[in-house]
Design brief:
The chain is α/β, with parallel strands linked by helices. Helices cover 36% and strands 17% of the residues. It is built from eleven helices and 13 strands. The strands form three sheets. It has an eight-stranded parallel barrel with strand order 1-2-3-4-9-10-11-13, surrounded by seven helices. Strand 9, helix 6 and strand 10 form a beta-alpha-beta unit. It is globular and about 65 Å long.
């Protein structure tokens, strides 16, 4: 990785469940003030709280540039509905949507739906990969100029520019086409935690952004190299993959109380890396790892979003900007533009296929 490669920064805005939309809107606007690439909002069938995708659809019109990436669990959900919901978020945000692909592993979560028992991780991540593949095909099932809206003839769409996807997988089959026109970005950005295990293979094959948890820059660099190698083996250009080091950060001090629900300590992800210190030292860590080629950027999860995100933006990010290591404004309008990723061509238009 070139020493002059752009630095990418993202942050999680979740925490203990909140039902006030102004809370999430305020955090997203704060991250946007720092010109972060995107914010994520975690979600799971294993915990109470509002639906992340719906929350960020509410946040979208209250923001103008920041990317919006909700967690979407592919287990127990229909891929056609998932693809439609993510495409809708891309439309209401005018091209700023992504989705953070996750799976549901526990029996308790499976019993919420009653459709099937819990499955092994390998099987779930294979299904998640199929869901990502179906989503991409559905997003392409409308060509960009399929809508004609001809009032005189009453024709809304050119049916020759709609395409069946005819996907047959081990867990589901989807014919298509989609019910939502092709999203502004072509494909909303796909994010996967590829730290290890079967998720890494799914990330290498389908993700635009991969998060990796590492405790040293050497570990992060090794993961990045491995992901790029796997992506190339799938026929992908590894330079289109963005690998972000994932850090849980605590920028508090002894005099600062955590948010309610965090008094017993931060809910660290399994095997996750954890940073505790000040905003300046965090800026030094980010600079050192990025310049050393360990990662294309960082995804930061503050243990107390209401407290720590302000310190990240006005402390860490401001220092990186002052040193000309991170941008001070958004040069484009879409999340793909923030990440330096091209808008994908439509596979069916290229093939010249017809529905």
């Amino acid at each position: 990785m070139s020493a002059t490669a752009p630095l990418h920064l993202a942050a999680e805005i979740g925490g203990p469940p909140r039902y006030d939309p102004g809370h999430y809107t305020g955090l997203a606007r704060l991250a946007e003030h720092g010109a972060l690439d995107f914010v994520t909002l975690g979600d799971s069938f294993a915990r109470p709280g509002p639906d992340a995708l719906a929350v960020l659809s509410r946040v979208a019109p209250a923001t103008g540039r920041i990317g919006l990436v909700p967690t979407v669990t592919t287990t127990h959900t229909e891929p056609f509905h998932v693809a439609s919901a993510v495409a809708t978020l891309d439309w209401v945000s005018r091209g700023r949507a992504g989705w953070y692909v996750d799976v549901s592993t526990t029996g308790a979560e499976a019993r919420l739906f009653g459709r099937r028992p819990a499955a092994p991780a390998g099987e779930l991540w294979r299904e998640a990969g199929d869901s990502a593949e179906v989503s991409a095909r559905l997003w392409d099932s409308w060509e960009d100029d399929a809508e004609i809206r001809d009032v005189a003839t009453g024709r809304f769409v050119d049916r020759d520019k709609l395409h069946y996807i005819d996907f047959e997988g081990a867990d589901f089959s989807v014919r298509g086409p989609a019910i939502v026109p092709r999203p502004p970005q072509g494909h909303p950005v796909t994010v996967v935690d590829g730290t290890g295990g079967p998720a890494r293979e799914t990330a290498a094959r389908h993700a635009d952004v991969v998060l990796v948890r590492a405790t040293t820059p050497e570990q992060a660099a090794a993961a990045r190299t491995d992901l790029r190698r796997r992506a190339a083996a799938y026929g992908r250009d590894p330079d289109t993959l963005r690998v972000l080091a994932a850090l849980t950060v605590d920028l508090g001090d002894a005099e600062t109380a955590p948010e309610p629900g965090l008094e017993s300590g931060p809910p660290l992800a399994a095997g996750g890396s954890y940073y505790r210190g000040g905003p300046v030292d965090l800026a030094e860590l980010i600079t050192r790892w990025h310049r050393g080629g360990a990662a294309d950027g960082f995804h930061l999860t503050p243990i107390s979003p209401g407290r720590d995100l302000e310190r990240i933006v006005n402390g860490t990010v401001a220092l990186l900007q002052h040193r000309s290591l991170f941008r001070t404004f958004y040069p484009g309008g879409t999340l793909r533009e923030h990440l330096g990723l091209a808008r994908p061509a439509n596979r069916y238009a290229l093939e010249g296929g017809r529905a």
